[in-house]
Amino acid sequence: MPLPSFLKRPIYRIFFGYKIGKRVRIGLSLIDAQKCLIEDDVSIGHFNAFVGIKSLRIGEHARIGHLNIIRGGVEVNLGRYSEILRQNEINSIPDPVIVTPADPRFILGDGSVVTTSHKIDFTDRVEFGKRVILGGRNSSLWTHNRQMTKSIIIGDYSYIGSEIRIAPGGEIPPKCIVGIGAVITKKFTNEYKLIGGLPAAEIKDLDEDGRFLTEYKTRADLPEEI
Question: Domain 5-215 carries which CATH code?
Fold first, then answer.
């Protein structure tokens, strides 16, 4: 919709029934959701597409960069102070042919960050806890394998490095670091671990620098309670 934000906000409210908060900025982007709640001080850049989503919520102070596609699913919930930077594809297959129950939801926790050029399939549930970083580039998360699906869970404060692959059912506990190029094929359970390799395994306990990386704030304006 090629209109300035101060015109887009009332149009979305009146004609689409969306709930749009104060000081929301929306660039040249498409929002197509059955239900939509955008809270105060959200910033959405140019050339983003939110398409075919049943319920979309974007929490206060969240930032969406440029050239992102977020498509499908029964719910997309982007937490307070979360960020999705640019050129990410976050997609749920509509009406998948599967033999397992699926819960097509993408949950990005408060203060969490998805950086650049990642692919996330949420044909089944993908949930990031708070202050998770999906860093670097070119990681892919897959919840379906032909006719079967399993969810993917990333615990609070974990850092996921570049070019990671996470298979259906992969799970990372809170306060872990996943090294570059790792392939996650199972559920891990122990906190404060460096995880890496193909297939991935626990390599060692996090040292002081590793713990600092998991505890460092993702944004300077992040409230203390996040």
Answer: 2.160.10.10
